[in-house]
Design goal:
With about 250 residues, the chain is mostly helical. The chain contains 12 helices and 2 strands. It comes from Candidatus Kinetoplastidibacterium crithidiae TCC036E.
């Protein structure tokens, strides 16, 4: 599986090379447009998406999860809502879609488009699913499609300027994705130590880096799929263990 010629080995090597210098990879996508993005969806190697999903499960369950859990005890952090109480359609469908459009889609889109749609995606993130929000989401997706059809980097914006700051852009979005999860916790003020917050959010930070790579290398559809599969697996595990403890 991990010999030097394997698909998975090359994927991991490419991932770390991307993290080292994101702009070098993105600069090869100068002619990136909607048609290419849609076409890539039908060429997706789904085994790669499952591979990254399993990698995230293993890393989070056996490494980052325990680290985060131990530091949550040290700083008195508690989840505001138990995972078992989160509706499955939110965890598997709504949250992955909105979070990917908010934190990963901008990694390859015109910043003007991002600024226009940002307030609405934040609104959807904060208010959750409803009939009105589903309609708003549909309109936002139409806007994104329009920019893609028009090849958004040719509209108002200079690609070279974007590439110059791409490394900063990528890591800012990864950190922001991790940071918003701090609001999932309530804290014991007597134990709170701000220096330990990054360790509490390690699972989200690493997941954000992986999802960012998937979005850039294989398109927004792929990152949504992996995010959804990852959440689905976590919810299923929690459901199984909670039912066992109830028996």
């Amino acid at each position: 599986m991990f010999n030097k010629n394997s698909l998975f080995f090359n994927e991991v090597v490419s991932f770390f090379a991307f993290l080292k210098k994101p702009k070098n990879y993105v600069n090869t996508l100068r002619d990136y447009n909607f048609a290419i993005n849609i076409y890539n969806f039908f060429l997706i190697k789904f085994e790669i998406l499952f591979f990254w999903t399993i990698v995230l499960w293993i890393i989070n369950i056996f490494l980052l999860g325990p680290i985060s859990y131990n530091f949550s005890k040290i700083i008195g952090a508690h989840h505001k809502t138990e995972f078992i109480n989160i509706p499955m359609y939110i965890g598997i469908l709504w949250a992955p879609l909105i979070e990917e459009m908010l934190f990963r889609y901008p990694l390859l889109c015109n910043p003007v488009q991002f600024v226009v749609t940002l307030p609405f995606f934040i609104l959807l993130l904060l208010t959750g699913p409803s009939y009105y929000n589903l309609f708003l989401l549909f309109l936002l997706i139409l806007v994104c499609v329009y920019f893609r059809v028009k090849n958004s980097f040719s509209i108002i914006f200079d690609w070279n300027y974007y590439i110059l700051y791409y490394q900063i852009i990528f890591y800012i979005f990864s950190v922001l994705f991790a940071f918003i999860h701090v609001f999932n916790f309530s804290f014991d003020d007597s134990k709170l130590n701000l220096f330990f917050i990054p360790l509490l959010l390690l699972p989200q930070l690493v997941s954000g880096l992986v999802l960012g790579w998937i979005r850039v290398s294989r398109g927004i559809f792929s990152s949504i799929i992996v995010h959804s599969l990852f959440n689905g697996g976590a919810i299923l595990l929690i459901w199984i263990f909670s039912n066992r403890t109830c028996v």
